[in-house]
C-alpha cells in the first residue's frame, strides 16, 4: 500500500488495484449474496447479455453504426434510471467507460447513467481513478467522473483502498480545472495520517497561484485541525460553508431510484443505534434529508491484516454507555457524519470528547445539507419533501437540545435564511433553531439578526409577532443560562461556547444582552401600538420581561434594564386583569433585584454599578403604579400620562382621576362589583367608592389575592 | 405619460385598494383570490402587467393605497419590467405605499447578483422587500396576510400608524456580505 501511495505510473497501480480487487471481493461477500438472489430473478433478463457485451467488447471496436452497442447501452440506461445498477454492473460499466475502449464519446453518456441501486464497489472506483492517470480522458469527462464519485461517495462500500491511493488522488490538485472537485474528494478522504508537510506546501503554493479559493481553504482548515503545527495559516472559523459541487442530474435520478427501491425493499437489519431501519440508507447527497444510517467504514478483515494500525472500534458496534466509556479512546467515527445526529451514544461521545475534527466534519456536513436543501432548491423541491425537511430539522433541534448548544453551521445558515424567509415556511422549526444560536457579538447583532427580524415582525401577522417574541425570550434565556454556567468567577472573561473560538468578555456579553433587550423593547412598543395592545401579544411580551427583570438574581448578570413606556403603559391600562397582575409581579422582581444589587454593591465595593437612570426609571414606574392603582391620582402633574385639565373636563368622565384605581380599573371592575355584592348583600344601589374606605379596602385586597392575583399580593406589601 | 397618484382621489369608507403588478401574471391571480377573502375591510384588488395603467379606466379606478411589484427572481425580465414600471408612479407613493414581493428567492438557478440588485433597488427607494413561497398554499396565505398587514396601514385603517411610519420600520436594507462575517 505504501508503494501505491507514491505510484504515479498507471501500470503499477493498475496491477495492485487488480490484486486488491481480488482480495476485497471476499470482503463484500454478504453484499454479493444478496445480489445473487436478485440476479436469479433477473436470469432471463436481457440486461445480463447487455452487461456481458460491455465487459467483453474489444478495444477499438468502431462506434459508428454499431447497432449492437447502441441497443445494449439503451438497455443499461433504461435499467439504471428505473432500478439503479447493481454493484457488478457499476464495475463493468465504469471500467468500460474509463478505459475508453470505444473512444471518449460513450464515456460521458455512461457516467451519466451510473446510478447505483445499492452500493458502489470501491475497487471499481479505485480502478477508475487509476484510469484518470493514463491521461487520455478529456478534462471535462474527468471532472464529470470526480463529480460522480462525490455524488455517490456515501454509497461506496468501503473507503480504505481509496484512502490508500490518497497520494495518487492528491497529485491531481495541480490540474487547475479538476482542483475544486479533487479538493472536495480529498476533504472527504483525509485522515490524520494523510496530512503531510509536502501536501500542505503544495496547497499553499496553489493558493498563492489561484488566490484564496474556498475549496483550498476548506481542505487546509481540515489539515489544520489534524495537524495545527503544519498549517500556520489563519483561517476564519466561519467560512462560506460547503463546496458548491451541485450534481443535480444524478441527484434527481438517485432520489427517484432510491425512493422506488426504498418502497420495495423490506428492512433486513435493525441496529440499535440507528434511527432508520431501512437497509438502503439514503444519504443527503442525493437531495435527501433523511439522516444516513450509522455505518462502519472500518473493514474488519482489512484491519486484522494490518497490525500497524491502531485498533479502532466503530461507533456502530457499541450499544451501551459502558461500552462507549471502555472504548472512548479508540472510537472510529462513521464515514457519514450526518449519522451522528441520529445516535444518542454518538452524541454523548461528541459531547464529552470534544473532538474538533468530528465537529468540523459534522458542521461541514450540516452546513452543506442545510444550504443545499433550503437555500439552493431545485424547482418545486421545497414543496415536495417538506415532510422530510420537517423531520430533519426536528432531529437537528433535538440534537442541539441534547448537546445544549447550536452548531456554527446552522447559525450561519440561519442568518442567510432569515434574509430570504417569507416568515411562514417551517416557522416553528426555524424559530426554535433561532432561539438556540449562541451569543452574537453586539457589533454584528443588528445586521445579522435585528434587520431581517424587524422587517419580518412588522409585516407579519399577530401570531408571527407572538412566535418571534417567544423565540427571542428563549434566546435570552439560553444566553443567560450560558453565562451563569460558563462565567468564571475571578476573571470576568467567559468562554461561551466551548466548540467555537468566540471568547467574550463580560462587558461584550452584557452589550449583546442589552442590545437584545432594547431591540425587543422596540419591537414590543411598536408591535403593541400596531396591534392595538392585543392581550395575546402583551402576554408574550410580559413573558420576556419576566426573564429580563430577574437577570441579576437568577443568572448573576449585573444588568437591569427597565421596560420601555410603550410596554409599561399598555400593560398597566390593559383591560385584562392578568396583564396588570403580571406587571405588578415584574415590578416586584425588579425591586428585589435592584435592592439586592444595591446591597451587594455596598458590601463588595467593587462589584458593579447600576446606573442611577435605571433606579430613577424604576422609581418613576412604581410611583405611577401606586398613584394610579391606589391613590387615585391618575392625571396629576409629574405623572407619566398628562392631559390638560380642560380636555379632561370636556370628556365628561366624572372623577376621572379615580378611573384607573383598583376599584374602577377596567380590568378589575367586575371584581369590585362582585366584592360589593358580597360585602353588602342588602344594598340596592352599588356605590363602588365605599370600597375605598380603609377597612373594606384591605378586605378588597384580600379578596383580590384570594382570586389568584399573586403579583399584586407580592407587589403591594413590598412597597 | 400619466403617472399614478396616491392622493388624487378620495378614499372609500372602510375600503383598501391594492394594485398587483407582475409581468408574468402567474402569482397575481392566486394572491388576488386570497386577498379578497378578507372580511374585516373591503379589499379591492387591481391587477396589472406593468405600468403605466391604461387611460380609459382612469375615472372608474379607485384610489390605489398600495402598489405591489411581484418579481420572480428566476426571470431577468420580471425584474426589468418592474424596474421600468417604477417611473410611472408618483413620488408620493414612495412614502410607504410601494412594496416589492419576491418569489423563488431560494431557487438554485437564481444568480446571487440578481437578488442583490433587487435589494439595492428596494433599499434605494426605501421600500419593504417581502419574500414569498408561491408554490405552496401556506406560502400564498402567508404572503396574503403580510400584504394585508401593510395594506391596512397604507389605507389608513390602523389607528396610530401611517404608511410612512411602517415603511420606516420595514424598509429594505442592503446587507453587507453575510458570507464572511468578521467575527475574529
TrEMBL record, chain A:
Residues 1-41 are annotated as: Disordered. Residues 1-29 have a biased composition (Polar residues). Signal peptide: none annotated. The keyword Membrane does not apply. The keyword Nucleus applies. Pfam families: CENP-I. It comes from the Eukaryota. GO terms for cellular component: inner kinetochore; nucleus. Its main location: nucleus. One of its GO terms (biological process) is mitotic sister chromatid segregation. It is found in: Chromosome, Centromere; Nucleus. Belongs to the CENP-I/CTF3 family. This is Centromere protein I. It comes from Pleuronectes platessa (European plaice). The lineage of its organism: Eukaryota, Metazoa, Chordata, Craniata, Vertebrata.
From TrEMBL, chain B:
One of its GO terms (cellular component) is nucleus. This is Centromere protein M. It is found in: Chromosome, Centromere; Nucleus. It comes from the Eukaryota. The keyword Nucleus applies. Keywords: Centromere, Chromosome, Nucleus.
